[in-house]
Amino acid sequence: MTDCAGRTWQVSGTDAREPFEVQARTRGGRKPHARWRPAAGIDRISTMIREILIWPDPVLKKVASPVDRVDDVIRRLLDDMAETMYAADGVGLAAPQIAEGRRCIVIDTSPRQEGQKLIHLVNPEIVKSEGVTTYTEGCLSIPGEAEEVERAAKVWVRALDYFGKPYELECEGLLSIAVQHESDHLEGTLFVDHLSSLKREVIRRRMKKLKEERATDNAASLRTAARHKSAL
Questions:
Q1: Residue closest to 88 by CA, chosen among 7, 44, 137, 24
Q2: Residue 122 contacts residue 103 (beta carbons within 8 Å)
Q3: Of 25, 76, 167, 218, which cross-links 1 as Cys (Cβ 3.0–4.6 Å)?
Q4: β-bridge partners, 147
Q5: Any catalytic annotation for residue 147?
Q6: Could you give the 3-state DSSP secondary structure of residue 174?
Q7: pTM of the predicted structure, to 2 decimals
Q8: Domains, the chain
């Protein structure tokens, strides 16, 4: 993934929570579980790392549904998404990638943008865009692949935060790319949909092979796993 050094982003609103895909290629310097905790009032035991769907998968092509109310169920989903994103060394994750058809996104570009933190976007809406840029994007649902994609250089997005409070972000650099990339997921679009049909088909074949290999490995693990004497 290309560096975005020299780019800046501004925030015209803040996510009230303290503690992409664009996939993080730089893995050093981040200790997510040492600094990230579910919000107060959310049972940490229930927070879990979810399975990330691999494209092609029909679930990834569905348009996500709006969230009616940000309650504990949605906050628990957001916590699971953050846990999953960090475990996969990503900088963004959308709910459809873990088979949840909700319009929810988590993003943390701090590994590549100084001074940033985890943000939550529920029912995000890009209300304005400006300029054009290209960025080499990867995706947690398309592991090992990266291609240049044309995006708006700057976007303004409105959303609800972790507690259901409306806010707005003015985004440039990697944050702008991540917001657009993850928003695409909510519409059933992946970065490969921005590529030529030839490139998309090549990547599709590689992903199908990867899924077959993983299925074979999982089946082999189940066959060789020790069975507890009380297993039925």
A1: 24
A2: yes
A3: 25
A4: 137
A5: no
A6: helix
A7: 0.80
A8: 32-222 (3.90.45.10)
